[in-house]
Amino acid sequence: RQKLNPPHVAIVPTPGLGHLIPLVELAKRLVVQHNFTVTFIIPNDGSSMIPQKKVLQALNPQSISSTFLPPVDFADLPEDAQIEARIALTMTRSLSALRDSLKVLAESTRLVALVVDVFGADAFDVANECHVAPYVFWSTNAMALSFGLYLPRLDETTSCAYRDMPKPVQFPGCVPLHGRDFLDPVHDRSNQGYKSTLQICKKLKLASGIMVNSFTDLEPEIFKALKEAQGSQGFPPVFPVGPVIKLGSALVSDGDHECLGWLDKQPRGSVLFVAFGSGGTHSLEQMKELAIGLEMSGQRFLWVVRSPNETAKNGTYFTSSSTAQQKDPLGFLPDGFLERTKEVGLVVPSWAPQVHVLSHESTGGFLTHCGWNSTLESIVNGVPLIAWPLYAEQHINAVLLADDIKIAWRVEMNDKGIVEGQDIARYARGLIEGDEGRLLRSKMKELKEAAKVALSQGGSSTESLAEVARIWKGHN
Ligand code: UDP
């Protein structure tokens, strides 16, 4: 009887809307294109997760259902525990509950695979115990994956802090990467965040396969090198299946947000969209410089403003900013800013319907924190970027986008780590009106087409996912 059931996949996302959204999209593709059914099993720390729940509730439970594991307890963690350590620990501390859930699924469905995200490698053992193949959905790009796969070797061969390495590192197929642009948590090698990251990277090799949210034409050399490394380094097979992104509204009543009406009234390609993902925040000083820069540029802008945070660049990560729990962010803008810029700018507190904004014809550029979902959303719409990385793997993304793919202009910081207003004005003007923007835009347009082809019938990403599906169904 079991054989007649559709093949079933368990997907385990770690905390963060940026992890969940592409996994939901992946699940939809598995259902629609390959007749799978899916269960999301969700480890969590007891945060309210309102936006996450909304995303999951919008799915048809016949094909994609979800279950929340009992919340883990973080009472013993130090206040300043790094976010990566918290995310990884959410998984580690949920393993026994995950094992129970997976066993029930294995008995009641034709369970063929467990898919985890970047932070989920701890669940491989549980998958193996339940006799299902552990797969990773790598929600960022092939360059960041190369970094992850080669980090254990770098750890063995480097004794200094990575940011003090005299030369940049060149992973196979990648452009050079300076130590200062490595992942956030690896900078302090004595920190728990580094140990967790290294541990995860070591385990990556043990996955049965890694799906990457990128496509062959975006990173051709890197994918080629990763394929070669399968034989030479014993890395797992890598499947470029992206862009896997949400095409409709991300959240709330996105479709009728006031900023879309405002965009309708602006000239084609004239507006710079300024947003830093679901978690990005700045210090008050930086926020003021950004305001000064936008005003000075004279360009039209749509800016998603968050309340400043002096200590963290990911101030709203666990809560997600859409829940509007913050103090009124507009109160932190320079005096008279809103009045002076009202003809050219619109400021939106905390959250904007980004997918709609990027696909709007008035949007001509995107000043972004280089979160990978934001990047892909910009690529599929052909919108060129100003790269302002903040945390996590965003610096690697910025290097890839600016130095390799050449679709972004990367911001520079002064000695105090501040991007100055006059520079912001220069980037904004250059991107929307200048020669810099023209070059980046034309490359972006090529990639927009390439992404479309990759996802079409017979396209590289469609075929790659079909290969994974065949393996899971046992037909390879
Ligand atoms: N997002 C949005 N409105 C906002 C900020 C973010 O809709 O004001 C969405 C965005 O479209 C993307 C996701 O939230 O799908 C952010 O993911 P990304 O990987 O770019 O960054 P992260 O939030 O993980 O840092």
Account of the 3D structure:
This is Glycosyltransferase. GO terms for molecular function: UDP-glycosyltransferase activity. With 476 residues, this protein is an alpha/beta fold. The protein has 17 helices and 13 strands. Strands 3-2-1-4-5-6-7 form a seven-stranded parallel sheet, sandwiched between helices. A six-stranded parallel sheet has the order 10-9-8-11-12-13, sandwiched between helices. α11 (337-340) links the parallel β9 and β10 (345-349). α3 (83-92) packs across α7 (192-204) and α10 (284-297) packs across α15 (421-432). Mean pLDDT is 93; it is low at 320-325. Uridine-5'-diphosphate is lined by residues 16-18, 21, 250, 275, 277-279, 304, 351-355, 371-374, 377. Uridine-5'-diphosphate binds at residues 16-18, 21, 250, 275, 277-279, 304, 351-355, 371-374, 377.
Structural class of the secondary structure composition? alpha/beta
| Helix and strand pattern | EHEHEHHEHEHHEHEHEHEHEHEHEHEHHH
Q: Which stretches are low in confidence, meaning pLDDT under 50 for 5 or more residues running?
A: 320-325
Radius of gyration: 22 Å
Strand neighbour order, sheet with most strands: 3-2-1-4-5-6-7
Q: Can you summarize the main beta sheet?
A: 7 strands, parallel
Shape: globular
EC number: 2.4.1.-
Organism: Prunus yedoensis var. nudiflora
GO molecular function: UDP-glycosyltransferase activity
Protein name: Glycosyltransferase
